[in-house]
Design goal:
The complex is a heterodimer of chains A (about 290) and B (about 425).
Chain A: H1 4-34, H2 41-59, H3 63-84, H4 94-116, E1 131-134, E2 137-140, H5 141-163, H6 165-175, H7 177-182, H8 187-209, H9 219-234, H10 239-259, H11 265-279
Chain B: H1 2-28, E1 30-37, H2 44-62, E2 84-91, H3 96-108, E3 114-117, H4 121-134, E4 138-140, E5 156-158, H5 163-181, E6 187-193, H6 196-212, E7 215-222, H7 230-239, E8 243-247, H8 250-262, E9 269-272, H9 280-286, E10 294-297, H10 308-321, H11 327-346, H12 351-360, E11 362-364, E12 374-376, E13 390-395, E14 398-403
Parallel strand pairs in B: 1-2, 1-3, 3-4, 4-5, 6-7, 6-8, 8-9, 9-10
Antiparallel strand pairs in B: 10-13, 11-12, 13-14
Helix pairs in contact in B: 2-11, 3-4, 5-6, 8-9, 11-12
The chains are: A mainly alpha (about 290), B alpha/beta (about 425).
């Protein structure tokens, strides 16, 4: 039963899952700290992909090198989005918050349509290309690198939140905004930072993804949805949970498709999702 | 003075009246054919190309051209005392209801003797219903929905090959490759998007695989625009088919090719059913990684290498309209000539006589710009039984016709090279 095909599917699922994890981490961070669902998250990812694409197409800069640029740019963009839009609706009803981030999503997506046209693009030659042969199991080097990058970035976010002073301040803000403010934490700055980091992870994920996935204006929708599932599955606001859930989704999708029916592979992901919601509504690693 | 003016105007009236009376008399000499196409709307640019192709075909019928095409060397329709043909164009905007209304109008108001159109399968469906009701022949040169000829219509005829025939061509091609290259091919697998297009293709391939003695070892349906194609490709790989036959739109076509490469999977050939694989973006986005893919097509300009007349016709077309012909305009062009030729053979403008002439109609493959064996309609379905597609291969960034072998402009690269050896 344990054939090379099975091993291949499992490993490829893990690699893809790591990317899902990274996309989900940024989303869960913003949710965890300020209870806002960012519908534009997938489109932050799309922006990261286009930054890497254009730097490659115009100046021949490899996605690995443009990765810091797209991380930095998205960090900035996330802060701007917070300052211009989100800050004004912090205390507003949830529906208004949803519409606001939804609006950012629509704006970004159609700006991409306007400037980049609805064409599919992809980066053909990267510094890392080819694949590794492990006794008939092939791991594509761009995907391996992307997975490693996703792992490192997620780890870095985890360390930042849980091991540093800034992370402590972020956590404190998440716990109780007013108490944190009374302790001398500039909560507004913390929120700005959370949006910056959240968007930056999406930008980095975009650059990593651009090495092996096609790029077009609506690509954010494909990954955005998976990220929502991962965030809920892992427990809202839980970075480690999003990480585990991302990998789980990648593996379940690949295995269900391989062992059962590819047309129904996402059904298994959503059954898992509903199952967790039903039996463990706080998420896999969430606390009640 | 006043009286004289009245006289003059009376004269003018009389002249105008005579002219008016003379016009219908002149029109009797013209055979009116209605052509319904999407001249505006999302497919407007395609509609314009088709209109140009039909206009050129009508000129070839009406004038004298030294071409091996029906009615080219004579002026007008010889069996109708050299009557000229006149095309009345109607615009259906890509809408089935508008197409049907146009067909009605053409028949009742414009008094056309036959209709042709309508590019979109959906519009062809409705417009041909109107023609059937009024008992006027309807010739369809470019819609490929298999259902169109399954309706048992008496007045509906289709010249273009349709999806079933294209699937059949795949296996004829494989048989030919086996003979020519000594390749061992016995199994195929499909991987297809799970809406109308993909499932239709899969059914056609399943049917024809059985007919031609090939095993269908896997048929993998997938939902459009997924995040990965790993599971699907693994399923195909596990079944180890000799040839993979995908039916995908652009995004998925790109994703699948990338996944084939990532998983180092190279069957003997990837033989695609048109759509995403043949799109410009597939070629541009994948560059080298898209090479050696095979796809079916209806027509290609490089057929001119073996059929010089294609170049001649294309030259006239290009000179006049500023662009090359393509698979769509070539099919409309051919459809019009067949219809005009059938009217000539009927020797009458009576729709019933034209229908009978179409049923008996045959044309040799040497008398057309298509890669077909000719035209002859199935007595029951009225589908052209002699149509066929061609198979093209992407080599060094260009698509080349590789099958039928007698029309090929390049030898087929078989099997496709392994990913590590490119």
């Amino acid at each position: 039963m344990f054939s090379t095909e099975l091993a291949q599917t499992l490993l490829s699922g893990v690699l893809m899952g790591l990317i899902f994890s990274l996309v989900a981490v940024g989303l869960t961070l913003i949710w965890g700290i300020m209870d806002i669902v960012n519908f534009a998250h997938g489109d932050f990812l799309m922006s990261g992909m286009y930054i890497s694409y254009w730097m490659y197409a115009l100046w021949g800069i490899d996605p690995l090198l443009s990765l810091p640029v797209s991380g930095a740019f998205l960090f900035f963009l996330g802060m701007v989005a917070y300052r211009l839009v989100i800050r004004r609706i912090l205390g507003a009803p949830m529906l208004i918050q949803i519409f606001a981030t939804f609006g950012i999503m629509i704006l970004m997506r159609y700006l991409a349509f306007y400037f980049f046209k609805p064409n599919y693009r992809s980066i053909q030659q990267t510094l890392l290309s080819g694949n590794i042969d492990l006794h008939g199991v092939y791991l594509s080097i761009p995907q391996l690198a992307a997975a490693a990058g996703a792992f490192l970035t997620t780890g870095a976010v985890y360390v930042l939140i849980h091991k540093t002073r800034v992370g402590g301040a972020l956590q404190a803000t998440a716990e109780d905004r007013e108490a944190a403010a009374l302790m001398g934490i500039n909560t507004d700055r913390m929120f700005t930072l959370a949006w910056g980091i959240g968007a930056a992870t999406a930008g980095i994920a975009g650059s990593l993804l651009s090495t092996f996935f096609y790029i077009f204006p609506e690509v954010g929708g494909i990954f955005g949805l998976i990220a929502f599932v991962a965030v809920t599955l892992g427990g809202f606001g839980n970075v480690a949970g999003a990480f585990v859930a991302g990998i789980l989704i990648g593996v379940v999708e690949a295995m269900a498709g391989y062992l059962y029916d590819p047309a129904l592979k996402t059904v298994f992901v959503y059954v898992l999702f509903l199952g967790v919601l039903f039996f463990r509504p706080q998420g896999l690693l969430g606390v009640e | 003075m006043k009286r004289r003016f009245a006289n003059v105007s009376g004269m003018a009236m009389a002249v105008a009246l005579t002219a008016l009376l003379a016009m219908p008399a002149a029109a009797v000499d013209k055979v009116r054919i209605g052509a319904i196409y999407p001249l505006t709307g999302p497919a407007g640019s395609t509609g314009a190309e088709l209109k140009d192709a039909i206009t050129l075909a009508a000129d070839i019928v009406n004038g004298k051209y030294d071409l091996d095409l029906p009615l080219a060397r004579t002026q007008g329709l010889p069996n109708l005392k050299g009557a000229q043909v006149e095309v009345i164009f109607g615009d259906h905007q890509g809408k089935p209801d508008v197409g049907q209304a146009e067909a009605e109008r053409m028949i009742t108001t414009e008094k056309v003797v036959a209709l042709m159109g309508a590019y979109h399968s959906s519009v062809t469906t409705t417009a041909s219903i109107a023609a059937e009701r009024h008992k006027v022949p309807f010739l369809n040169p470019e819609s490929t929905d298999p259902k169109l000829t399954e309706r048992g219509f008496r007045y509906f005829f289709r010249t273009t090959p349709f999806d079933d025939q294209f699937a059949e061509n795949f296996f004829q091609f494989l048989n030919d490759v086996k003979k020519q290259k000594g390749a061992k091919i016995s199994s195929v697998a499909t991987v297809y998007e799970n809406t109308n297009f993909g499932t239709g293709v899969n059914n056609a391939i399943r049917k024809n695989a059985a007919k031609y003695g090939y095993r269908l070892v896997a048929d993998v349906a997938y939902a459009e625009k997924g995040t990965s194609a790993i599971a699907e490709v693994q399923k195909v790989k596990a079944a180890a088919p000799d040839v993979v036959m995908p039916a995908s739109y652009t995004a998925d076509a790109i994703l699948y090719m990338k996944t084939f490469k990532d998983l180092n999977y190279a069957p003997q050939a990837i033989l695609a059913m048109d759509a995403g694989y043949i799109s410009d973006e597939f070629k541009k986005t994948l560059g080298k990684d898209g090479e050696y893919v095979l796809s079916r097509e209806v027509w290609a300009l490089d057929l001119a290498k073996k059929k010089p007349m294609i170049a001649k016709v294309n030259e006239i077309y290009k000179k006049r309209f500023g662009r090359d012909m393509n698979g769509n305009s070539a099919r409309s062009f051919t459809g019009f000539l067949v219809l005009a030729d059938a009217i000539n053979r009927a020797g009458s403008t009576d729709p019933e006589k034209i229908r009978e002439a179409l049923e008996k109609y045959t044309l040799g493959g040497n008398m057309m710009i298509m890669p077909w064996d000719g035209v002859a309609f199935d007595p029951k379905t009225h589908q052209n039984t002699k149509g066929r597609g061609i198979i093209v291969q992407l080599v060094s960034g260009e698509w080349y016709t590789v099958w039928p072998f007698d029309l090929a402009s390049r030898d087929v690269v078989w099997p496709m090279p392994a990913w590590g050896k490119r």
